[in-house]
Structures are given as structure tokens and as C-alpha cells.
Amino acid sequence: MSDTRRGASRGQEPPPGAERARWNPRRCKDWALPAVIVRRLRDRRVRMPLYAAAGLVLAGAAWIAVTGVLARSELLAAQRSLETLRRLHPAAAPATAAGPPAAQAATVQDAVRDATGHAARAHRLTTGPAWFPAAHLPVLGGPFRTVRGIAEASDRLTHDVLPPLARTVAELDSTGTDDGRHLDLSALRRVAPLLEQASRSASRVRADIDGLPHSTWLPATDRARTELARQLDRITPLAHDAAAAARLMPPMLGADGPRRYLAVFENTAEARGTGGLPGAFAVLRAERGRLSFEHFGNDTELSEAYADVDLGAEFDGLYGPSAPTRTWVNSNMSPHFPYAARIWAAAWQRHSGQRVDGAFGLDPGAISGLLTASGPARLPDGSAVTAHNVVDLSERASYALHPDIKRRKAYFLDVARAVAIRLLGASTDPTRRTALFSALHRQLGEGRIKVWSGHAAEQRELLARSFGGALPAGSAPLAGLVVNNAAGTKLDYYLDRRLVWAPGRCVDGRREVTVTVRLANRAPVSGLPPYVVQRVDDPPYDTRPGDNRLLVSYYASAGATLSGATLDGRSAQLSHGAERGHPVFTLDVELPAGAVRTLVLHLLERPADRSVHVLRQPLVHPLRAKALPSGPCTG
What is the DSSP string of 334-386? Predict the structure, then answer.
């Protein structure tokens, strides 16, 4: 027995049977613990850390829940402040109700500060030690990462983007001029760095939001991310355009020397590619921020003028038969505004001997938007031109009021002159200036005011903006419906347009696309003035008053081919051309009064993972367009 115990004390196996049962571990420190005791000790050692870890997880979850609720409350408060800021924006209310500029600026600053404080608190609440590991959990961490990203983005938006924009408004509103009749361009140059900063920050915040999870197991966070992205989609272009305006406006408004521009008023009752027929025009002079009109004229004055410009073989192939460089009323058949502007500038120089530095195009819809901010203009006879009546007055009622063509053209000049003087007065009126600039920005964004500069550096920047009026170039998918009136009527006042772009299956790596265009002539069959319904095209078929005729062109994505087309269910043959890298398919369509015609095009296009860009030709009634989602071809 002693030998056995002695051997056991040296680490040998314990004695079998009853000896094992009587074994006293205290008598031999080297002896291994019995299994039951080991398990008990092991259970305690495991349970305690597990309990501690579980406690930490529960505490972290509770912390996330509490701070998440608080952060949501702060973000909602910030959103309410931003909504207040939107309502305070001059474009949201009539200028007469906007209040004194100093009071407006102070209220805007207060709203921005309030939103900034709420967003900063939401960001702090979601940056604790519990949020970081939660956001990086596999599968489960998506909503936490999204909430953290939303809070951080809101903080940066209210700290880096909105304050520079608000300070710019305050700076421009508080800056006077020596005579109150011109714009202080030095103020614009002072705020330019602030706007550049806001523009860059907005782009970075928008990119960060795109990097957040788009679909998680918590739909509420997905909706919040989508809503913030939607807000940034409104704010980011505004910041970009404001920065561009601060760069472009000082030189374009004569800070470095006098400038002259041709402003052309387009009559959308007779459709042209950029909008409407070029009718009345004015020559605008800008010098050190002071604006004045030197001359007003109409299309009759320029009917014999021609432009010695070469716009390339593609342009000639599409529009050559209509002689756009030699016929003023056909000068803007292309939807690419820089082509029309170059023709206008060259035609005016040949007619007058005067070189202009650029050109603007605008229509009665744009004037309506501007008059909302400036207030009504007064005609020589005492009547008012208002935001509510200018479109109808210019494009419908005037033809009945003034049957004589010379009197009517003189009336159009009276309207143009009265509106121009009213807008110039509002631009230097501190109580209306900010509202007018906001309305101007909205009309520029909608494409109802287009701008071209004869200075190359300025024009390069304008081409990148919506108000440059450029037909998009490159490989991005495009759906462009453009109509040109081919009858010489003023019946496009009654034209309704619809477009549906529908992608289909893939065939040999290319996607089938069906484009459906519906055109409706809502003109009454009787009661319209003769000048509105008269035809100058002399068609080889019978027509009735109110019947219209259109050249309908579809501008497709680069590389697209037409596999077939129908008009009202019957096969149609379309002519084929190209412009700025886009195939253009055109059909001559007779559109009787009260008729609805349906043109369907079947195309094969290169697949793309980007949304299709819908070209919106600005006419009296807006295009109603629907582009269904697409994507790359797989398999």
C-alpha cells in the first residue's frame, strides 16, 4: 500500500477500487482533481464571464434602445426646424408676405442654429461604445450602422452645408449699393468661398448616405435613409448651383467690363426644340452689376438676318431643310440650346453690327414664375401682367384681342418691356431681391430659362448645369421626346404629351426597350382666331380649323437601334439622324383637333445600371413621363 501511495505521490495512477474512493487529495498536492469537482469549478468559471458578458450585452442593448429613442427625437426636431426653414424660404411664399430682409435673415439663422443643435445631439447619442460594435455585427448590424450614418450625415449637413448658404443669404440681403439700382458683385465674390465649401460638403455627405445599407431587417431605418437621401437630392444641386452662380455672376454681370446679352422670348404656343418659337427679343447690358435694356425687337426685325455659323454635318442632316441658320423662326429646332444661342448671336451681329457676349432663352412660363416674386407689371394702357395671366395673355388671349398682326407684335413688345422693367426693379429692391433670385433659380432648374456664354471658360461651366440647356452627351441612357410645329399654327397651347419608357428582356447582350408616345390635340373645333389655326404648310390633304401637324423626334440612348415602329397600331417608317452621339428618329404626324395619336418605338439599347434621363422640352403643358426601372443584362 505504501508503495502504491508513494507511486501515486509521484504522479502515477491512483489506486483502483476502494482505494480510489478513500483517496484524500489534500495529502498529495500533485494529484489531479476528481472529475465532478473539476466540472463544478469549470462551470463557475464559465458562468461568471458568461453572466458578465450577458449583462454587458443587455446593458448595451438598453443603452442603444434609450439613446436610439433620444436620437430619433433629436433628428425629428432637426427635421421640423428644416421644414420651418423651407417654409421661410422666399420661394415658398409671396414676396409681399416675406417680411423685411433683416427679419427674414435672422429667422433663417435661428432655424439653422436650431437644426444644427438637434443634429449634433443626435450624432453624440449614436457614437457611444455600444453603437460601434453593434453597427459592425454581421447581418444584424445594418440598422445600427444606418442610424449612426444618418445622425452623422445630419450633423454634417446642418454644420457644413446649411450655415454657409444661410450666411450667404444674410450677406446679400444686408449689403447695399451706392445708389440702390445695381447688384453688389463684391458681395458675391466674398461669399463664393463659403458656397464652394458648402457644395463640396454636400457632395461628400450625399456620397456617404449612398454608402449606407439600403435594405436592412428594420424597415423604419431604411425609410429614414431614403428620406434623408431625398432631402439631399434637393439640397446638393442647390449648393452646386449657388457655388456656380457665385463664380459666374460677377464676370457675366460686368464686374470686369461691360457685357451685352441677347434675351429671346420663346412662344411655346408654337413648339420648337428648345421650347417655343423665338419671337420678341431684347438686348441687355450689364456693367458692374447695373442692368439695363438697350433695345427691344420682334421676329419681324430679324426675318432677313442669317447666321454664318457651322454647326456640323449632323446638325445639317437633321435640320438643314428647315434652314435654321437663315430663318429666325426656325433657329431653335434643335433641343440643344447652345446651337440656337450661337445662331441668335451671329444673326444679331450680322443685323446690327453689335457683338453680344451671350444669350438667354425664356418663355411665358418662366416669366410667370418670376412675376410671382417681383409682383405684377403695368402696361401702357394701365392693365396688369401678372403671374396668373401672362401665359394665357401671351399665347392665347392676345390673338383674339389683337387680330391685326402689327398691333399684336407691338403688344408683345409692350409686354416684354413692362416685364423687363419690373424684374429689373425687383432685382435691386431689398424686400424682393431674395425672393426673385429664388424664383430665378427654380426657373433655371426647370429649363424654362436657358443661358449661353460666348466666353469659353464660362460656357464650359454652363454646359454642366441644367440651365445650360445642353442635350446630354455620352453613354448615359436617354429618353427624349421633342416636337417641332410643322403647320405654322399656335395650337401647341393645347398639346398634351405623354411618354412611357419600358425596358424588356435582353437579347444578345442588348436590352429591348419599348417607348410609347401619346400626343393629344385638345384644341376646340371652333371659336379660335384665324391666326391661331391657319396653316402655312399647304398639306396635300384636307384639313379643318384646329388640326395641327408636328415633326415628332425621339432622341435615344447612344448606340440604340430602331427595330420597328407603329403609329396608331400601323407600321410607320421614321427617318434616322444623329445629334451629339444620340440616334434621332423622326416622324411627320398630322394631329387633328380632338385626336389622340400613339407612336410606339421598339429599340435595342446597350444595358446600363443608371436610370434613364428623360429630356423635358418646356411647353405650355408639361410632359408627363414614366421611366420604368432597368438594369444590366445578366447571364
Answer: SS-HHHHHHHHHHHHHHHHS---SEEEEE-HHHHHHHHHHH--EE-TTS-EE-
Q: By C-alpha distance, which of 635, 633, 625 is closest to 608?
A: 633
> Are 387 and 371 within 8 A, CB to CB?
yes
Q: Which three three-digit cell numbers place residue 162? A: 446649411
Q: Is a pLDDT exceeding 80 seen at residue 634?
A: no
Q: Classify residue 130 by its DSSP letter.
A: T
Using the 8-state DSSP alphabet, how is residue 530 labeled?
H
CA-closest candidate to residue 556, choices 609, 485, 634, 503: 503
Least confident of 182-196, 261-275, 510-524: 182-196
Lowest model confidence (mean pLDDT) among 21-30, 105-114, 315-324: 21-30
pLDDT at residue 332, as a whole number: 97
Q: Which set of grid coordinates corresponds to residue 524?
A: 376646340
Confirm if 479 and 615 have CB atoms less than 8 A apart.
Answer: yes
Q: Would you state the pLDDT for residue 503?
A: 94
How much is the pLDDT for 136?
A: 83
DSSP 8-state assignment for residue 289: T
Question: Which residue has 449689403 as its cell numbers?
Answer: 175
Conformation bin of residue 464: beta by default, left when phi > 0, alpha when psi is -120 to 50:
alpha
Query: Pick from 322, 334, 255: which is nearest to 287 by CA?
Result: 255
Burial of 271 (0-12, 13-18, 19+ CB in 10 A): buried
d(CA 112, CA 106): 10
In degrees rounded to 5, what are phi and psi of residue 290? -90, 125
Beta-carbon contacts of residue 519 (< 8 Å; ≥ 6 apart): 483, 495, 496, 497, 550, 552, 589, 591, 596, 597, 598, 599
Cβ atoms of 451 and 515 within 8 Å: the answer is no
474: helix, strand or coil: coil
**Cβ contacts of residue 92 below 8 Å, gap of 6+?**
86
pTM as predicted:
0.82
Three-state secondary structure readout of 62-118: HHHHHHHHHHHHHHHHHHHHHHHHHHHCHHHCCHHHCCCHHHHHHHHHHHHHHHHHH
- Using pLDDT thresholds of 50, 70 and 90, give the confidence band for residue 462: very high
**Burial of 624 from C-beta contacts in 10 A (0-12 / 13-18 / 19+):** exposed
Assess contact for 426 and 432: CB atoms under 8 A: yes
Q: Has residue 383 got a pLDDT over 60? A: yes
Residue with cell 419681324: 300
Closest to 108 measured CA to CA, from 155, 164, 160: 164
pLDDT at 331: 97
Tens digits of per-residue pLDDT, 178-213? 455 567 788 888 888 989 999 999 999 999 999 999
Contact 499, 614 (CB under 8 A): yes
Task: Judge whether 491 and 532 are in contact, CB under 8 Å.
Answer: yes
Are the CB atoms for 338 and 242 separated by under 8 Å? no
